[in-house]
Design goal:
Helicase, Ruva Protein, domain 3; elongated; Zinc Finger, Delta Prime, domain 3; two-stranded parallel ribbon; Rossmann fold
Length: 340
């Protein structure tokens, strides 16, 4: 019954068509899709009246017994065709593999949803193969940075809203890959749209999300890609004055990912636009522009040296060999090293 690499959209579509599986194992590093699937099942399998007696949500702690989960799953529904049992925080179950006993003979009238976050169940043990035979196993992986703009555009498109490219990049760089937080910030922007307006601008992002359209991680990356010394220094000085909104560690992480991608681009076997997009796993051609721009200013040797400096800077920010230097001192030294 299991389909390899099934997507969350395919699972939602199956549930919408009332094509239910007796067990869903939702696991992985990205909580967003696990939450969306479990919420959709909770909201749409049973009617509101049926949910009162036939929907159970179990919040697992280290003391939760697997036997209690199995006993709940083996109950029969009352005045309904199905009962739904949603197991939250299943990563806390100490003997989760014992659920394989239930998976070998699941009750057809029970829809058991196991939400396992911050990691995945060991596929070499019995539980995953047992569920794959009768139900659905979904692994929710963290999005790579290059996929965030597409996620933003797709999320807003479903709400019949578009977003300017610059605003999209500001959101991707500043909010990051926490998709639950990203969805919340995007919902905030949609609600803030004036009547009749369906396009999100950088001004709206600055006003409603609290991210400066002029001084943010994306603008810093653009300045560095173009080797714009004056603009990069202006932004880093602004960061000095707003350390809570612009964490040095987050800035270093962003720059590390950027130069790591540039290094990857140098190793691309196909230097055409399409070839490099495939190699870097980018969805849109405009995402490639900054990398190709940066490659005109930083050769492969300089890029490798910058990556080494970024590793050193990250360690110093965390207290290793930093001496009496402040975070601001360390960041200014880094930016000078990159640009000169």
């Amino acid at each position: 019954m299991a389909k390899e690499n099934i997507t969350h959209r395919e699972i939602v579509e199956q549930v919408r068509k009332q094509q239910y599986a007796p067990i869903y194992l939702l696991m992985g590093e990205e909580a967003y899709y696990i939450d969306r699937i479990s919420e959709y099942i909770a909201d749409n399998v049973l009617t509101k009246d049926e949910q009162d007696f036939n929907q159970t949500i179990i919040y697992c702690t280290r003391e939760t017994a697997v036997g209690d989960v199995i006993n709940c799953a083996r109950r029969y529904p009352m005045m309904a065709k199905y009962q739904v049992v949603i197991v939250k925080e299943a990563q806390n179950l100490l003997k989760i593999d014992e659920l394989a006993v239930y998976a070998q003979n699941p009750l057809k009238t029970t829809i058991l949803v196991i939400c396992y976050k911050n990691g995945s169940v060991d596929r070499r043990k019995k539980l995953v193969p047992s569920i794959e035979k009768v139900g659905v196993v979904f692994e929710s992986k963290k999005l790579k940075d290059g996929m965030l703009p597409q996620f933003i555009a797709d999320y807003l498109r479903r709400k019949q809203v578009s977003i300017e490219e610059r605003a999209c990049q500001i959101m991707a760089e500043s909010v990051g890959a926490d998709l639950n937080r990203m969805a919340g910030e995007l919902d905030k922007l949609v609600l803030a749209l004036p009547t009749g307006q369906t396009r999100i601008t950088p001004d709206m992002v600055e006003k409603n999300v609290g991210i400066s359209k002029e001084f943010n991680l994306w603008e810093l990356r653009t300045a560095i890609a173009n080797r714009d010394i004056a603009k990069a220094n202006k932004i880093i000085y602004h960061f000095d004055q707003n350390p809570k909104a612009n964490s040095p560690v987050a800035t270093v992480a962003m720059l590390f990912n950027f130069f790591a991608q540039i290094m990857q681009a140098y190793y691309s076997p196909d230097r055409s636009e399409q070839g490099m997009m495939r190699h870097l796993e980018l969805r849109q051609s405009w995402q490639l522009r900054e990398y190709t721009t940066a490659m005109r200013h930083y050769n492969a040797m300089k890029t490798m040296q910058i990556i080494g400096k970024l590793r050193e800077t990250d360690a110093r920010l965390k207290g290793i060999n930093r001496g009496n230097l402040t975070d601001a001192d360390i960041m200014h030294e880094l930016i000078f090293y990159i640009l000169h």
